[in-house]
């Protein structure tokens, strides 16, 4: 186990949805987190990766930066999702090794698992087939970083680890319907329909696909615990331990938001991977970690944040117009 107190830990994507929570957990442990923002350090450029490492001289690095989105965004921008996610990680791993970083944790994605992986996904199933087509470029780009970490460990003795969180959600998520994942999209559609008095909401697919959702703060705690305690080359799943269909999820979101209308499912849009839930046994055993926030509780927190955030933005716009 490593001691984080007083240690400089560089967090790529540290100002993002997950990254902010990771930074908060590091601060709780007395570490000195360094937030790397894309506006200052473009990680797709190797010279900027080298600059970030030289400027901040971290002892440890957590790579949480990623270009992400829901099914629609993955279908529209597959080349961008592949290229940027691959090269950011490739440059960072190589330059961190060259700079003498003592340990590097890469946050992977559950999208890397094969399309028809038996549920729950076990880490040893990661190479048993091709990912679901709509997000395969993203999933494969992130998966190659696991290969690189294992290769650098084998040849150079570099201590790199790889964790695979399941689908994340929580306050501060991306609610842009063009790029968001399923939970923020459902919340926004239900809240806006309720406020407008609309009696129906159109949703993608059939609703039969299933997913597992991990509250973002629980994921951040697991990631920092893995940095402290996990040192093996094999990937490590981070899951909540509960699977739910998208249709059931929509009904739960309707309850939490107060939307009383009906859902209209549009099967001309894809469902994505048929089922998705991971076996998180290894993480629980090796990290001594358990997710704390149940889905209904986490959804209530997320809805409350979304409503407050929208209200504050409306207030700011009204104030600007009144000047």
Write structural notes for this entry.
- The chain is α/β, with parallel strands linked by helices and 323 residues long.
- It has a single domain (8-322), classed as Rossmann fold.
- 46% of the residues lie in helices and 15% in strands.
- It contains 10 helices and 12 strands.
- It has helices at residues 17-28, 46-56, 71-76, 78-99, 136-156, 182-196, 216-229, 246-257, 281-287, 295-322; strands at residues 8-12, 32-36, 60-63, 103-107, 160-165, 167-169, 200-204, 210-211, 213-215, 236-238, 244-245, 262-266.
- A 6-stranded parallel beta sheet has the order 2-1-3-4-5-10, sandwiched between helices. The chain has a two-stranded parallel ribbon with strand order 6-9. Strands 7-12 form a two-stranded parallel sheet.
- Helix 2 packs across helix 4 (78-99), helix 6 (182-196) crosses helix 10 and helix 8 packs across helix 10.
């Amino acid at each position: 186990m490593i001691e984080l107190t007083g240690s400089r830990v560089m967090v790529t994507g540290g100002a993002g949805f997950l990254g902010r929570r990771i930074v908060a957990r590091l601060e709780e442990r007395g570490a000195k987190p360094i937030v790397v923002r894309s506006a200052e350090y473009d990680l797709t450029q190797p010279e900027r990766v080298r600059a970030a490492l030289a400027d901040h001289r971290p002892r440890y690095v957590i790579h949480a930066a990623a270009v992400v989105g829901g099914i629609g965004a993955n279908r529209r921008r597959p080349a961008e999702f592949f290229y940027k996610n691959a090269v950011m990680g490739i440059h960072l791993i190589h330059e961190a090794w060259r700079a003498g970083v003592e340990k590097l944790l890469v946050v992977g994605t559950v999208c890397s698992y094969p399309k028809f992986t038996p549920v729950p996904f076990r880490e040893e199933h990661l190479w048993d087939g091709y990912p679901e087509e709509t997000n395969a470029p993203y999933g494969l780009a992130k998966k190659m970083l696991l290969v690189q970490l294992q290769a650098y460990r084998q040849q150079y003795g570099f201590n790199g680890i790889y964790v695979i969180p399941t689908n994340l959600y929580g306050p501060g998520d991306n609610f842009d319907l063009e790029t968001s994942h399923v939970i923020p999209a459902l919340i926004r559609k239900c809240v806006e329909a309720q406020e407008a008095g609309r009696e129906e909401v159109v949703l993608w697919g059939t609703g039969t696909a299933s997913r597992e959702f991990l509250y973002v703060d629980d994921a951040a705690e697991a990631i920092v615990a893995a940095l402290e305690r996990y040192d093996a080359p094999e990937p490590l799943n981070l899951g909540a331990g509960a699977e739910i269909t998208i249709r059931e999820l929509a009904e739960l979101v309707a309850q939490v938001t107060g939307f009383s209308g009906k859902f209209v499912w549009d099967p001309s849009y894809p469902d994505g991977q048929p089922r998705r839930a991971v076996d998180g046994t290894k993480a629980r055993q090796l990290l001594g970690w358990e997710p704390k926030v149940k889905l209904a509780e986490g959804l209530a927190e997320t809805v409350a944040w979304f409503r407050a955030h929208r209200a504050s933005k409306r207030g700011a716009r009204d104030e600007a117009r009144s000047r």
